[in-house]
Design brief:
single chain; alpha/beta; 4 helices; six-stranded parallel beta sheet; 6 strands
Length: about 140
């Protein structure tokens, strides 16, 4: 049984709803899955999991949240080589550039993206939640 962690930051609850759907999918796929906020996760925990889903909305000029999420992600980036990961998040403007940049950062670190990243504009609709569940199953 795969052991998966879903790590997220959410300011409005949109990315949190997506994280909960990823957990549902991972469990439905037979994985042992844990949901953690960004403040509950750090580099010392990366090796405890077979796969990691990271969720963060676009902030400012289409960047990851800078005060909590980005520092945590920077600290774990060096441990992502060969690690199976998935990315998700919501946005309120722009065209998804933050996700494209984030995916490229992960690929350069050697991470294995298990499926297409999931994005949604504002609150996730049922299609976005279904895509998050599929991401969780892909991690499982």
């Amino acid at each position: 049984m795969a052991k998966i962690v879903v790590v997220y930051w959410s300011g409005t609850g949109n990315t949190e709803a997506m994280a909960e759907a990823v957990i549902e999918g991972a469990k439905a796929g037979g994985a042992e899955a844990e949901l953690l906020t960004v403040s509950e996760f750090d580099v010392s925990k990366v090796d405890s999991y077979d796969a990691v889903a990271f969720g963060c909305p676009a902030m400012g000029a289409e960047v990851l949240e800078e005060d909590e999420f980005q520092p945590m992600f920077d600290s774990v980036e060096g441990k992502l080589g060969g690690k199976r990961i998935g990315l998700f998040g919501s946005y309120g403007w722009g065209d998804g550039e933050w996700m494209q940049n984030w995916e490229e950062t992960c690929r350069k670190a050697g991470a294995v993206l298990v499926c297409d990243s999931v994005t949604c504009n504002e609150a996730p609709d049922e299609d976005a939640l279904d895509n998050c569940r599929a991401l969780g199953k892909a991690l499982a």
